[in-house]
Amino acid sequence: MSAVQTAKELKELARSRSPADRERLMLAIVDLCGQPNDAVRSPAIQALLGSIFTDLVTDAEQDIRRILAEKLSIADWPPPALVNLLAMDEIEIARPVIARSPVLRDADLVRLLTEGAVDHQIEVAKRPLIGPPVVETILDQAQPAVMIALAGNDTADVSPDAMRRMVEASRDVAGMRSPLARHPRLGSEMAERLYAWVGQSLRSAIVTRFRVDVEALDRALAESVNEARDAPFHDPAPRNSIADAEQEEMERRLISKLHDAGQLRPSYLLRALREQRLSLFASALATLGGFPIHAVTQALDADRPETLALACAAVGLDRGAFSTLLALVRELNKGRPGGDANQARRVFDAFGPEQTAKAKAAFAKAAATV
After folding, report:
1. Which of the four pLDDT bands, split at 50, 70 and 90, describes residue 235?
2. What span, in angstroms and rounded, lies between the C-alpha atoms of 79 and 117?
3. Is the pTM higher than 0.70?
């Protein structure tokens, strides 16, 4: 039987909803996965297979999707749309695809990092041979569990600057220290920085790998401890301000990358809030609407929620999502903005989906009067 005939027969099975046909379809796909050939890669067959697999995955039971994902994870011929669909599925289904599929490219992996759950992001960070765009996105997002996974990925294409950022991040993310101390791309300069905040066993590992002046490092550490102990108490705000500024800069870079790639959408606002990152939400809202960041900050701290509602309407947020968004903002912002949520929802009645430009003008006017 030719590849075209096989594909047509599979499509007929895909239209059936009987359990027996589902089983036959699954067995036929497994057989096709086991014996790929050049004909399968032709545009005509790819189009047919794309249709078949879309039908199957949309209605398939979890067990069938899991088997399908496992079989397709090592194949280079499946339609990219199918592979990306499986990669965004439940993590037990997505894991083998994210880990191994040769069909996934850096752009696909970056999308998984920005749109997927934390479990999906961790699997991306663990994937062998991930490229610089993927590494940079992980560092920009600065999700601790994902950073730990990246630190343990010896095959990732980590630049010297990326290694510097990883070592600096390990000051706050202790789980990164052990894998970084043994990382093949750790240089002597970064090893000395890492030495300052690891335990004794990791210091021994660093000393074994690199020619470092242990006495000089220990002396410098002791002097720093003594200075900190003897110094008068002072408000730690300046240090926190520096850390906050660095975090905000990382967030601005992330939002800028998403925007430039056409991947920054209103749905990202809710994701940032669910991850409890209010400043990331503010940066995303300002970028989506072309608003000054201070105008968004004023809307977040206002006595009434209407100004925030105007900003959200201006970027095309769905009316039904605003109640959830407002509740999340208030949870993270000490109950601000205050006021009646029903008044804010009326903003969406006045400015529908086709009136985003008017909503934007109204937001600018409202922000100017605050």
Report:
1. very low
2. 23
3. no
Question: Residue 161 carries which DSSP code?
Answer: H
The DSSP symbol for 74 reads T
Q: What are the two backbone dihedrals, phi and then psi, of residue 190, each rounded to the nearest 5 degrees?
A: -70, -30
Average pLDDT of the residues in 129-135: 96
Q: Which of 159, 163, 77, 84 is nearest to 116 (CA)?
A: 84
Question: Hey, what amino acid is at 178?
Answer: S
Rounded CA separation 45/9 (Å): 12
pLDDT of 339 higher than 60: yes
Tell me what pLDDT residue 51 has. Answer: 74
The secondary structure element, H or E, covering residue 56 is helix 43-59
User: Is 70 exceeded by the pLDDT of residue 59?
Assistant: no
Query: What would the two tokens of residue 118 be?
Result: 């934390």
- Least Cα distance to 351 among 309, 302, 295 occurs for 309
Angstrom distance (rounded) from CA 108 to CA 230: 52
Please give the Cα distance from 333 to 341 (Å, whole number). 15
Residue 44 Cα distances to 33, 83, 102, angstroms = 17, 18, 21
Q: Residue 323 corresponds to which tokens in the numbers above?
A: 């109640």
Pull the structure tokens for residue 18. Answer: 């009987």
Rounded mean pLDDT of 180-196?
89
| CA-based max dimension of the chain | 85
> What mean pLDDT do residues 121-139 have?
96
Confidence of residue 245 (pLDDT cuts 50, 70, 90): low
C-alpha–C-alpha distance, residues 177 and 198, integer Å: 7
Q: Please return the burial class of 207, using the count of CB atoms within 10 Å of its CB with bins 0-12, 13-18 and 19+.
A: middle
SS3 content of the chain, % helix, strand, coil (to 5): 70, 0, 30
Is the distance from CB of 156 to CB of 183 less than 8 angstroms? no
Q: What is the CA radius of gyration of the chain?
A: 26
The band of 120, judged by pLDDT with boundaries at 50, 70 and 90, is very high
Spatial distance between the Cα atoms of 87 and 119, rounded to a whole number of angstroms:
11
Q: What is the pLDDT of residue 105?
A: 96
